[in-house]
C-alpha cells in the first residue's frame, strides 16, 4: 500500500497527452486521445513517475517492492473526473421515480413541494455520521466504475447549518477515501419550504445566501466554487446575478445550472460572469453557444439526467462544432438522476448528446478536470500527474460505448493503489 505500482505493457494507453494542457479542449482537439501502444506506466508515491514503451522500461525506473499489474491485451485510461454531482444527501426518492415513470412531471413534483425539498427534509434530519456513511457507499460505487476525482455540491440544506454540514461531509469523504474532492456551495438550489409562503421570502433567501451562507462557506474554506440553479421554477436570472456578484467578490469561481428547462438566461449569465462551467444546456441557440465559446466556459452535459427525466438531450454535436469545450458528468443526485457510473454516462453522451467516443473520453477526463481547475494534476496519463488510472477489460475504449453497461472495468488505480478489481 505504498502508492508504488508498475502497470505493464498495456495494449493501448489513452494518454490524452497530445493536445493543449493548460485549458479545456474544443472542436477537433477533443478527438485527439494520444494513444500509445505497448506502453508501461510507473507510479511512485502516488504520482506517475514514468510512462513509455515497455521495451524501454529498465529496473532503475521501478521503485523497489512496487506491485505489478499486467495490462497486456487491455486498455489503460486516466482516472475519470466527475465534474458535477450532488453526492451528499440523506434518504432516497425512489417513490418519485415510480411516480415519474407513471407519468408525473419532475417540474410539477418540485413545484408541489416534493422533489428537491423532499431531499432537503431528509438531509436536515440526518446527523453527520449518517450523511457520511450514505454518501460513502455511493462514492465507493463511483470509484469502482472508474471515477477517481469528483465535484460535490451542497444544496440539500438550504439553511446555513445544513449547507455547511454537507460541505464538511464532502471534505470528510476526501479525507477518508483519498478520492480527490472539489466542493461547490449550491445554497441557491431551491427556495426552502419555510420561506415559500412569505411575500418577501424569495428576496430574504437570496439575502441569506449572499450575506450568510456564501461568506461562511468561503471563510471556512469549505467551498471551492459557487453554483446556482438558474432555471424555470428555481432562481431567476436577476436573483442569480445577485448571488454571482457576491460569489465573485468572495473570490469563488462559478459553475451554473443553466438552460435545462428553457432559454432561461443562465447560459448568457455564465458567459457574462466567466463561469468555469455551464451545466445541462438542453436549450441553447447559436448566440448562446457563441457566448459560451467566447467566454471560455466549459459546457457540462449531463445525459444521465436527460435519460431519467425524458426531456431531451443537449446537442453535443452543435457545441463541438461551435468550438465550445465540452465536459460530461453524472449529475448524481437523489431525484433527477442517481446514476453513479461515469463510465456508463460516457456512453450516454454518445447515444444522447451525439459525441464521438473519443470526444466523450476527453469530456470525462481532461476537460472535466480543466473545468474544476485540476488540469495540472489529473485527467491525463503523464509524468507528474496523479497515479489515477482505469484498466479496461478490453483493448479499446470504444467498448465502453459499444457494450455500454457491461462490466468492462478490470481495475481502478487511485494514487498508485489498486482500489477495485
Ligand atoms: O442538477 N437541477 C437541479 N438540481 C439537480 C436535481 C436535484 C434533485 O432533483 O434533487 C440537477 O438535476
Ligand atoms: Fe445538478
TrEMBL record:
<feature type="binding site">
    <location>
        <position position="156"/>
    </location>
    <ligand>
        <name>N-formimidoyl-L-glutamate</name>
    </ligand>
</feature>
<feature type="binding site">
    <location>
        <position position="260"/>
    </location>
    <ligand>
        <name>4-imidazolone-5-propanoate</name>
    </ligand>
</feature>
<feature type="binding site">
    <location>
        <position position="189"/>
    </location>
    <ligand>
        <name>4-imidazolone-5-propanoate</name>
    </ligand>
</feature>
<feature type="binding site">
    <location>
        <position position="333"/>
    </location>
    <ligand>
        <name>N-formimidoyl-L-glutamate</name>
    </ligand>
</feature>
<dbReference type="GO" id="GO:0050480">
    <property type="term" value="F:imidazolonepropionase activity"/>
</dbReference>
<feature type="binding site">
    <location>
        <position position="84"/>
    </location>
    <ligand>
        <name>Fe(3+)</name>
    </ligand>
</feature>
<feature type="binding site">
    <location>
        <position position="257"/>
    </location>
    <ligand>
        <name>Zn(2+)</name>
    </ligand>
</feature>
<dbReference type="GO" id="GO:0008270">
    <property type="term" value="F:zinc ion binding"/>
</dbReference>
<feature type="binding site">
    <location>
        <position position="86"/>
    </location>
    <ligand>
        <name>Zn(2+)</name>
    </ligand>
</feature>
<comment type="function">
    <text>Catalyzes the hydrolytic cleavage of the carbon-nitrogen bond in imidazolone-5-propanoate to yield N-formimidoyl-L-glutamate. It is the third step in the universal histidine degradation pathway.</text>
</comment>
<dbReference type="GO" id="GO:0019557">
    <property type="term" value="P:L-histidine catabolic process to glutamate and formate"/>
</dbReference>
<feature type="binding site">
    <location>
        <position position="93"/>
    </location>
    <ligand>
        <name>4-imidazolone-5-propanoate</name>
    </ligand>
</feature>
<dbReference type="GO" id="GO:0005737">
    <property type="term" value="C:cytoplasm"/>
</dbReference>
<dbReference type="InterPro" id="IPR032466">
    <property type="entry name" value="Metal_Hydrolase"/>
</dbReference>
<protein>
    <recommendedName>
        <fullName>Imidazolonepropionase</fullName>
        <ecNumber>3.5.2.7</ecNumber>
    </recommendedName>
</protein>
<feature type="binding site">
    <location>
        <position position="257"/>
    </location>
    <ligand>
        <name>Fe(3+)</name>
    </ligand>
</feature>
<feature type="binding site">
    <location>
        <position position="84"/>
    </location>
    <ligand>
        <name>Zn(2+)</name>
    </ligand>
</feature>
<keyword id="KW-0408">Iron</keyword>
<keyword id="KW-0963">Cytoplasm</keyword>
<feature type="binding site">
    <location>
        <position position="86"/>
    </location>
    <ligand>
        <name>Fe(3+)</name>
    </ligand>
</feature>
<feature type="domain" description="Amidohydrolase-related">
    <location>
        <begin position="76"/>
        <end position="419"/>
    </location>
</feature>
<feature type="binding site">
    <location>
        <position position="331"/>
    </location>
    <ligand>
        <name>Fe(3+)</name>
    </ligand>
</feature>
<keyword id="KW-0862">Zinc</keyword>
<dbReference type="GO" id="GO:0019556">
    <property type="term" value="P:L-histidine catabolic process to glutamate and formamide"/>
</dbReference>
<comment type="pathway">
    <text>Amino-acid degradation; L-histidine degradation into L-glutamate; N-formimidoyl-L-glutamate from L-histidine: step 3/3.</text>
</comment>
<comment type="similarity">
    <text>Belongs to the metallo-dependent hydrolases superfamily. HutI family.</text>
</comment>
<keyword id="KW-0378">Hydrolase</keyword>
<keyword id="KW-0369">Histidine metabolism</keyword>
<dbReference type="InterPro" id="IPR011059">
    <property type="entry name" value="Metal-dep_hydrolase_composite"/>
</dbReference>
<dbReference type="InterPro" id="IPR005920">
    <property type="entry name" value="HutI"/>
</dbReference>
<dbReference type="InterPro" id="IPR006680">
    <property type="entry name" value="Amidohydro-rel"/>
</dbReference>
<feature type="binding site">
    <location>
        <position position="336"/>
    </location>
    <ligand>
        <name>4-imidazolone-5-propanoate</name>
    </ligand>
</feature>
<dbReference type="GO" id="GO:0005506">
    <property type="term" value="F:iron ion binding"/>
</dbReference>
<feature type="binding site">
    <location>
        <position position="156"/>
    </location>
    <ligand>
        <name>4-imidazolone-5-propanoate</name>
    </ligand>
</feature>
<keyword id="KW-0479">Metal-binding</keyword>
<dbReference type="Pfam" id="PF01979">
    <property type="entry name" value="Amidohydro_1"/>
</dbReference>
<feature type="binding site">
    <location>
        <position position="331"/>
    </location>
    <ligand>
        <name>Zn(2+)</name>
    </ligand>
</feature>
<feature type="binding site">
    <location>
        <position position="335"/>
    </location>
    <ligand>
        <name>N-formimidoyl-L-glutamate</name>
    </ligand>
</feature>
Amino acid at each position: 500500500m505504498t502508492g508504488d505500482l508498475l502497470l505493464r505493457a498495456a495494449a493501448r494507453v489513452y494518454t490524452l497527452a497530445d493536445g493543449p494542457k493548460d485549458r479545456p479542449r474544443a472542436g477537433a482537439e477533443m478527438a485527439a486521445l494520444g494513444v500509445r501502444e505497448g506502453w508501461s506506466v510507473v507510479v511512485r508515491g502516488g504520482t506517475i513517475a514514468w510512462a513509455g514503451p515497455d521495451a524501454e522500461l529498465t529496473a532503475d525506473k521501478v521503485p523497489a517492492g512496487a506491485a505489478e499489474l499486467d495490462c497486456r491485451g487491455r486498455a489503460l485510461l486516466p482516472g475519470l473526473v466527475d465534474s458535477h454531482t450532488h453526492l451528499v444527501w440523506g434518504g432516497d426518492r425512489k417513490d418519485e421515480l415510480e411516480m415519474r415513470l407513471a407519468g408525473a412531471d419532475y417540474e410539477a413534483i418540485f413545484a408541489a413541494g416534493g422533489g428537491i425539498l423532499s431531499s432537503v427534509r431528509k438531509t436536515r434530519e440526518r446527523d453527520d455520521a449518517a450523511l457520511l456513511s450514505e454518501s460513502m457507499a455511493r462514492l465507493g460505487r463511483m470509484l469502482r466504475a472508474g471515477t477517481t476525482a469528483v465535484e460535490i455540491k451542497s444544496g440539500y440544506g438550504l439553511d446555513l447549518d445544513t449547507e455547511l454540514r454537507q460541505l464538511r461531509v464532502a471534505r470528510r469523504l476526501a479525507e477518508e477515501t483519498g478520492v480527490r474532492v472539489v466542493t461547490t456551495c449550491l445554497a441557491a438550489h431551491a427556495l426552502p419550504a419555510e420561506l415559500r409562503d412569505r411575500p418577501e421570502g424569495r428576496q430574504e433567501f437570496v439575502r441569506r445566501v449572499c450575506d450568510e451562507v456564501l461568506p461562511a462557506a468561503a471563510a471556512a474554506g469549505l467551498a471551492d466554487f459557487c453554483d446556482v440553479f438558474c432555471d424555470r421554477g428555481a432562481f431567476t436570472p436577476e436573483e442569480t446575478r445577485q448571488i454571482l456578484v457576491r460569489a465573485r467578490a468572495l473570490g469563488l469561481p462559478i459553475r451554473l445550472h443553466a438552460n435545462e428547462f428553457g432559454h432561461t438566461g443562465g447560459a448568457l449569465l455564465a458567459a457574462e460572469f466567466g463561469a468555469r462551467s455551464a451545466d445541462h444546456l438542453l436549450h441553447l441557440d447559436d448566440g448562446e453557444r457563441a457566448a459560451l465559446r467566447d467566454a471560455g466556459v466549459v459546457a457540462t452535459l449531463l445525459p444521465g439526467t436527460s435519460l431519467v427525466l425524458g426531456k431531451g438531450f443537449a446537442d453535443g454535436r452543435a457545441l463541438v462544432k461551435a468550438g465550445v469545450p465540452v465536459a460530461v458528468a453524472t449529475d448524481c443526485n437523489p431525484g433527477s438522476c442517481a446514476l453513479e457510473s461515469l463510465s456508463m454516462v460516457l456512453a450516454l453522451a454518445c447515444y444522447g448528446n451525439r459525441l464521438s467516443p473519443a470526444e466523450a473520453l476527453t469530456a470525462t477526463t481532461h476537460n472535466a478536470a480543466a473545468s474544476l481547475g485540476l488540469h495540472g494534476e489529473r485527467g491525463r496519463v503523464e509524468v507528474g500527474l496523479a497515479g489515477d488510472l482505469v484498466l479496461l477489460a478490453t483493448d479499446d475504449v470504444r467498448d465502453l460505448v459499444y457494450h455500454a453497461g457491461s462490466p468492462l472495468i478490470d481495475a481502478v488505480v487511485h494514487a498508485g493503489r489498486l482500489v477495485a478489481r
